[in-house]
Amino acid sequence: MIGTLLWTVALLVVFIVAATAAWAGWRAAPYVPTRQHDVERMLRIADLKPGEKVVDLGAGDGRFILTAARDYHALAVGYEISLLPYMVAKIRLWRARLGGSATIVMKDFFYENLSDADVVVCFLTPAAMKKLGEKFRRELRSGTRIVSFAFSIAGWQPVSKDKPNPRTMAVWLYRV
After folding, report:
1. Which listed residue, of 59, 84, 146, 176, carries a Cα 20 to 30 Å from 94's Cα?
2. pLDDT tens digits for range 135-174
C-alpha cells in the first residue's frame, strides 16, 4: 500500500514537472540556460544602475535576477511558469540571501503588468517576442530598456546589436 502511494505521488510529481515544462515551451520558450558570461554581457549592455528594477521574462533558474541583484544592486523580479527551474531559482535566491532585492514568481508574464520596469531582459522564441512587442508598447514607460538574447523583436528598430563574433549569439538592445 505505501509503495503504491509513493509510486503514485512520484508519477504525479513527474507529470506536473513535465506538464509545466511543456506549457512553458509552448507558451514562450523551453528552458535553455543562458551562459553566465552572456548574462553579464546582457546586463552590461542594458547599462543597469543600482536601484533600477529589472524584470526577467522566463527567468528559468534565476541567474539573471541573482546577478542583477548581487552585482548591480538592482531590484530584480523574474517570472517563470515551469516548475523545476522555478524551484531551482527559489533555492538559489534563498541561498544567496539577497533579502527582497531578488524575487521569482511562478506566473505567466503575458498577464503581468510590466509598467514599473526600468529594464526587461528575455531569451524567448521569435513567436513570443512578436507577441511581446505590442505588450511592451502598451505597458512600458518611455526610456525603458529591453534586452533580448538571440532573437529580435519583429518590427522594432534596435538601439544596438552586440554580436562580437560569428559564434556568439546576438544581444539586441531596444528602448521604448
Report:
1. 146
2. 999 999 999 999 999 999 999 999 999 999 999 999 999 9
- CA 46 from centre of chain: 14
Distance CA 60, CA 65 (A): 10
Contact 31, 69 (CB under 8 A): no
Give the total number of structural domains in the chain: 1
What residues have CB less than 8 Å from 32, skipping those under 6 apart?
60, 123
Q: Which of 89, 133, 92 is nearest to 107 (CA)?
A: 89
**What is residue 107's DSSP assignment?**
S
Q: Say if CB 38 and CB 169 are below 8 A apart.
A: yes
pTM: 0.89
Q: Which domain holds residue 120?
A: 2-175
Query: What CATH number should be reported for the domain holding residue 128?
Result: 3.40.50.150
Q: Say how far apart CA 42 and CA 121 lie, in whole Å.
A: 8
Helices H / strands E in the chain, number of each: 5, 7
